[in-house]
TrEMBL record:
<dbReference type="InterPro" id="IPR014001">
    <property type="entry name" value="Helicase_ATP-bd"/>
</dbReference>
<dbReference type="GO" id="GO:0006139">
    <property type="term" value="P:nucleobase-containing compound metabolic process"/>
</dbReference>
<feature type="domain" description="Helicase ATP-binding">
    <location>
        <begin position="42"/>
        <end position="309"/>
    </location>
</feature>
<dbReference type="Pfam" id="PF13307">
    <property type="entry name" value="Helicase_C_2"/>
</dbReference>
<protein>
    <recommendedName>
        <fullName>Helicase ATP-binding domain-containing protein</fullName>
    </recommendedName>
</protein>
<dbReference type="GO" id="GO:0005524">
    <property type="term" value="F:ATP binding"/>
</dbReference>
<dbReference type="GO" id="GO:0016818">
    <property type="term" value="F:hydrolase activity, acting on acid anhydrides, in phosphorus-containing anhydrides"/>
</dbReference>
<dbReference type="Pfam" id="PF00270">
    <property type="entry name" value="DEAD"/>
</dbReference>
<dbReference type="InterPro" id="IPR006555">
    <property type="entry name" value="ATP-dep_Helicase_C"/>
</dbReference>
<dbReference type="GO" id="GO:0004386">
    <property type="term" value="F:helicase activity"/>
</dbReference>
<dbReference type="GO" id="GO:0003676">
    <property type="term" value="F:nucleic acid binding"/>
</dbReference>
<dbReference type="InterPro" id="IPR027417">
    <property type="entry name" value="P-loop_NTPase"/>
</dbReference>
<dbReference type="InterPro" id="IPR011545">
    <property type="entry name" value="DEAD/DEAH_box_helicase_dom"/>
</dbReference>
Amino acid sequence: MGFKSRYQGHSEIKSPESLFYDLRNRKVEGLLAHQADVLRVYNEKLESPDIAMELPTGSGKTLVGLLAGEYRRITRQERVVFLCPTRQLVHQVVEEAKHKYDIHPIAFTGSQKDYLPSDKSKYNDGEAIAVTTYSSLFNTNPFFHNPQFIILDDAHASENYLVKYWSLSISRFNHEAVYRQLLEIIKDGLPQEQYQRMTTDSPSPSDRSWVEKLPTPYFVERINKIIPFLDQFTSGIRDLMYTWSVIRDHLKSCHVYLNWSGILIRPIIPPSETHRPFSMAKQRLYMSATLGLGGELERITGRRKIERIKAPEGWEKHSVGRRLFFFPGTALKEEESSLVAVKLAHESPRTLLLVPDDQTANNWIEFFANHTNKNVYQAEDIEKTKAGFIGDENAVAILANRYDGINLAGDECRLEIMLGLPTAANLQERFLETRMVASILLQDRVRTRVVQAIGRCTRSATDYSAVCILGDDLQDRLLQKENLRLYHPELQAELTFGNEESKQTQSVDEFVELYRYFLNQSSPEWRNADKEIIARRNDANQTPDPLMKVLEDAVTFELDYQQAIWAGNYVGALEKANRVASLLSGDELKGYRGFWYYLAGSAAWLAGTLNLNTNDYSSISRQRFQQAAACTLSVTWLRNLVESESASGQQIVDDPYLPFIIERLEMELTTMGTTSDAKFEKRVKNILEGISNNTDGNLFERAHEDLGKLLGYLAGNSDERTAPDPWWIAGNNFCLAAEDYTETDGTKPIPAYKVRQANDHPTWISRKVEGLSASTTYVRVIITPSVTVEASALNIAQDIAYWNQSDFVQWAHKAAQVLRTLRLDFTGVGNENWRVKAMHAYRDAGLDPTSIQKLLAASPLTKLKSQ
């Protein structure tokens, strides 16, 4: 047996492009023009520490990245790591590299102890590229501890995978004891209402979606209790203990976000320069279909000065493949829209269904299992290989929150169904979007996710697939004009064509017929449609939001802030946070500016704890917290961080109820959608007809309850005989408790037993309804067409108000018109200007709790004539 070493001398390969032509067993004849162009530009930037390539979905960026890695491995003997978001993509990249390009990387997935010694040696000796997941590099003991060249595939999707290393994510379901005990430690830093939201075992949809942040001063004051607790309670829990060891000594640099499902502790931006396996590489190459705007890639990765290699010339009007969009929600009812998706799936051998969460996925898995003969595949079924799915002629793959990570080219899949908007992916994002109303920061991130998702089944220039959009939130995000202009011209054309066709399609079967025309790409019907899409594309222009330039200018200082705060340099962090806030001028950036004022105030507060005598940091922190409170009305605890109220003079700022109501109103409007008026108007019609009814008490109560929900109140009802008729709650200390007496023509007096029931409503609600405090203000009211009351009832009435039914109906009509007007410029959750406008509209129309309380205080039941 001879020696096995084979030294072949120094390579004479001139560039990654020339390397391609030495790959003799490749199945690809040649590089596409844009691939060659990008590689030539890259060859001039071999010494730059951070390079980003923008190549549209399906344009062959995997080959470009592999060629760059293989070139550096061979010519520079570098250790090369190719990072993918998921294990499925790891195996997909390796399979594609070997079978199509004659490049032979090694897949590293699973536990380190299972890596083959020969594979490890090949990587360490620079004999093969290692393809692995982000989590394999970003962990406390990575095998890949000193790579020299790192390729980050789907870099736009890397934020959650990358920041996970610094994110302690405590799940209510997987770590119940840790969740509940930590909640008890920090509960006195939370409003009572929020604490009750977290602890209830029967949460409402709003309870589940609500997210809160523990103010930094409150958090820091409890660190001495939190550290020993987490030291003990995370021990032995693998998905907590390692992350805890990373952030344990940097808790003052972290932030705590809470909601019903979990608690998240993490820094604002990943301090990636502290993770040497990542930061010490000679070069990092970020590959993405869209690099994002406004410094988004820098925020995601924590890296400065990432040089961009833009998409090649010609791609500003052309993209990859062709999509036919269906928007059944613009023409059909919700149940019919779902039926469109199911019938389209029946027409297709394989269907990809993308949904935002596990619960939605489970519902659809159950539906397909019970009502169709489709074979259902889930993420774990295609994680290692998609061979089973693409070999099945009667399949549907249902994936939750997987907007990247699977590529289905050609006949592998011709139908994609997408349900729901891929918005905030973690609690920090959700807090910034819904509470700080800083949605401008996440706008580009969400747009990128949407673009990636709808490109899963169009992977080449000649590829094509239909995309069926379900859910009003996603439909709005794609079709509203202010959002549409942000997309690539080709996508704009496909979306507008699909919208126009869908609005004119009157039945489920018509959608199926259009799909059949589309599948027959040579049919005259489709060829004419495709010509129209091209014409629309030529007339469309992509118009980036000018605010992205402001965010881009700010990101360097954001990274400087993160570096300083992580190192415990609170004075330096204050300086950088001040600089960020000063750059974020204008009303559109008001929410995000407020967040940075808050971070500056927190840094000043932390500096004050060091007993530095050079500045009055307490005064600075109060000033910054005041400025933060003036920027957003939703985060009421900001006002508690200062000794005096903001000097803005706005009466609304002091209202304890309106922020709660307006945020719930946003949820209602989002659920109904704004691209079509049908759902809203139908709901209003049912409400107004119901509260005008004098013969069916149940119908009135249902409409009464739904009116409260539509307005943003937490409304409820009960079938118990002694329970209130609908109650409306705002915050945790206002409750409108009603007794409806409407099954009468108004000639009968209000009976004493109705008054007696109204008296007892606060007692019933305080015992049965969660989320209210001991200091709750209860407003009792009887709604009825009656104009008199039994004499005996007046003796027992306890501060009960009277609301004549006709006046109540008139008030509801006014409320509906206010909502109708507010919908006109509602573009989604997280617009501070819209929230302020909505609050003023509520106050002006008397729809807010304070106004209702004043209205009813002027109409006591005791003013009625007795009979």
